[in-house]
Amino acid sequence: MERDMLSCSLLVTLLLLLLLLIVNFSVSACPEADRSALLDFEASLNEPYLGIFKTWSGTNCCNWYGVGCDPTTQRVSDIVLRGESTDPMFEKAGRSGYMTGSLSKSLCKLDKLTTLIVADWKDITGEIPACIPGSLSSLHILDLVGNRISGWIPVDIGSMSKLKVLNLADNQITGSVPGSLVKLGDLKHLDLSNNKLTGSIPSDIGKLTMMSRALLNGNQLTGSIPVSFSKIYRLADLDLSMNKLTGPIPSQLGSMHVLSTLNLDSNQLSGQIPTALLSNSGLNILNLSRNGLEGGLPDVFGPGTYFSVLDLSYNNLKGDIPKTLLSVKFVGHLDLSHNHLCGKIPLGSPFDHLDASSFDNNDCLCGSPMLRTC
Ligand SMILES: *[C@@H]1O[C@H](CO)[C@@H](O)[C@H](O)[C@H]1NC(C)=O
């Protein structure tokens, strides 16, 4: 009787131990399905110089270079592969990263991914797998900057409701900015710069109220600047330069309180420079160079403003240089060249530390630093 009880409790203990072992084993190594998805992803890439994929062996993929797992579920949660890195592996190789190949659609099997960074590898080609928005609904960061990715931005990009960072800059992406983008209610950083995007900017982009940086420069975007940008009250950095945007600069941009950098240079913008833009005391960098802006320069500068860059060159501005510019706290780089300005250059700061190139190629500006006397 006693012996029976003993053996029974022994059996229970053994069973418990076995159970513990199974549970422990199943959470300590990465799930086989995740491991094989990673291996498929690796198989479509070629990294010849650093050997980062040499670490991609063994059963526990959570230890592989650039792979991170959720500590409780052990599911793959992060892929962080940067071609520009201070990692010793890069130092040893004495070079930055380089990869060819493309992004495998097997990435979409890693449905618990929160971070996908495959950045600055220079020569990864192919398209963004179309299955990403539908499959990777936990993604917070999608960063594929600095490759040679082509094709369109997936039309259903807006279904990744957790996305905070979308960086597809410096690729060869074509097509237009998908309308669904404005559904990314948590988006903070949007960088689509230096691609081949065409079409217009969604007029309801202002729905992205969490956004603090929006960089769309260096594309072939047409149409006008959506007024709704002004509703993004956290927006600090807006760069739409080097596109083919037309129409006026919305005056509402002048009343944005956090905006500190506004680059609209090298477009085909017309109309006058909104008064509120020049009196906005938060704006530090304003580049409106190389457009078709006309009219006079509003005399609305004030002691509250501080410009490290005020570049209004290559427009059709006329009239004289406003005297209130003398009251501005600081102007670092001022460029009024290549316009139709006329009259006396005011005496005093900031004009006394600028050289003639800031005023070159106007109609009849005179006084120091120009050679022409008034
Ligand atoms: C302003 O934009 C123009 C044209 O895109 C560019 O050449 C210039 O360097 C920019 N100015 C500054 C100060 O960055």
From TrEMBL:
It holds the Pfam family LRR_1. PROSITE patterns: LRR (PS51450), PROKAR_LIPOPROTEIN (PS51257). InterPro entries: DNA_repair-toleration (IPR053211), Leu-rich_rpt (IPR001611), Leu-rich_rpt_typical-subtyp (IPR003591), LRR_dom_sf (IPR032675), LRR_N_plant-typ (IPR013210). Gene3D superfamilies: Ribonuclease Inhibitor. GO terms for biological process: defense response; response to other organism. The keyword Lipoprotein does not apply. It is found in: Membrane. It comes from the Eukaryota. Residues 32-70 form the Leucine-rich repeat-containing N-terminal plant-type domain. Keywords: Glycoprotein, Leucine-rich repeat, Membrane, Repeat, Signal, Transmembrane, Transmembrane helix. One of its GO terms (cellular component) is membrane. Residues 1-29 form the signal peptide. The keyword Kinase does not apply. This is DNA metabolism protein.
